[in-house]
Amino acid sequence: MIKLPINYHEPLPAAFYPASAPLPFSRADFGADFHWGAAAAAYQTEGAWQHQGKGPSIWDDFTRRKGTIRRNEHGRVAADFYNRYETDLDLARGLGLTDFRFSAAWSRVLPEGLGAVNRRGLDYYDRLVDACLERDLRPWLTLYHWDLPSALQARGGWTNRSIVGWFSDYAQIMARRLGDRVQHWAVLNEPMVFVGAGHLLGVHAPGRRHLGAFLAAAHHATLAQAEGGRALRALLPDSAQIGTTFSCSHLTPHRPGNRNDEAATRRADALLNRFFVEPTLGLGYPVAELPALRWLLERYLKPGDDQRMKFSFDFWGVQNYTREVVKFSPWLPLQWATLVPAKQRGVPHTDMGWEVFPESIYHMLKQFAAYPNAPRLLVTESGSAFPDVVQDGRVPDPARRAYLQAAIGQVLRAQQEGIDVGGYFAWSLTDNFEWAEGYGPRFGLIHVDYETQERIVKDSGRWYQQFLGGTAVASEPERAAAERV
Ligand code: IFM
């Protein structure tokens, strides 16, 4: 059994894994079939926002509204992945990854969200899938990573129950075209985030702040999650591994033992970690902890929905970045709880203000695996944003490297305790557009210079490559220098 440093409160996790010290584990400890990947998403990386027939999405619209995004940035060019995917996949291959997770932009395939297919958009994903396979990278396709076609938002978007059918039609188009080559499908990316941040907090597209909109969107996303799974399974009954992904955070009370904070922590857990998970298992919504969800049941739940929300996924994607510390709040209806920011607690944190707490991933894997009938788990996102400096064509990023090592170690810890966890995907392959935060926070294993689109594999990426036994990775400046010799 490996011993990992946990419960630390040192300034930076790098202190635990100095670059020179050997790790207490190796790739082989995870088993030969373990999926080693990195992840990305369409709006955050592709750019090409109006290219080859793509229709607008709610993120194209939201980023046009002044003041919604830091420095008024947008994803119109982003990391230019649409044009540079071959370069990026070469780098991914060089890192030694076995798998690459990306999302499709619904409005690239269906500019109006439904109806006529944009052949050139679908062709692009066809080429991308082939490009992965040519490099021995298994493609993991996420159908929805937050960029709803604007035309569907004009009809109410996620608050309109018809979205369940629209989404199912889109899923079928993707399955028919790519199902012969894509074996791993994720239906939704983090429904709590696009529903909550987009419809209750108003900080993500479509920028709504309305409890009714939140409850409607939540219920329709829950239905679409299961319906999308059914659509894929009906068309790909033998070949596809069908999953969906959940954001989650290990939660602890601000004042352990304080009854109010303990109860607030249970409510926050119901909202942040259980809400979209339990209906898939037939357990319904966590109404006992969150009585406000009765409105959802009264207004939006139709006869038969309890069954419609169920789907037996082949895997759940666990997406974890931090833990949260929870305090009772009399001001926030729905959960009557607030999250105490890491900065206020004086603990080490990333550029997102998230506490550096890699053991959260271990706790969440244990929590999800404890459900009877839980499917196989994979960590489909895990990572950290720290400021980067390019020095002599390299990016030394010890804090990100240490976070990555610690997170992977925590996954092994869970696996060694019997949890069926089958993969780890670092977020993210390259730096990209971090939603409301714009291009400030950098999560990539590969640095992107947004002026020139030059890529440099960071030291964290080089560490990942050594750990995975990938072939040497040359960054663009190094390749250019080699060509000059
Ligand atoms: O960048 C996001 C991603 O789109 C969804 N999961 C969390 C990441 C970091 O915030």
TrEMBL record:
Its EC number is 3.2.1.21. It comes from the Bacteria. The keyword Hydrolase applies. Pfam families: Glyco_hydro_1 (PF00232). Keywords: Carbohydrate metabolism, Cellulose degradation, Glycosidase, Hydrolase, Polysaccharide degradation. It is an enzyme of class 3 (hydrolase). Transmembrane segments: none annotated. It catalyses: Hydrolysis of terminal, non-reducing beta-D-glucosyl residues with release of beta-D-glucose. InterPro entries: GH, GH_1_N_CS, Glyco_hydro_1, Glyco_hydro_1_beta-glucosidase. Belongs to the glycosyl hydrolase 1 family. NCBIfam families: BGL. This is Beta-glucosidase. It comes from Hymenobacter frigidus.
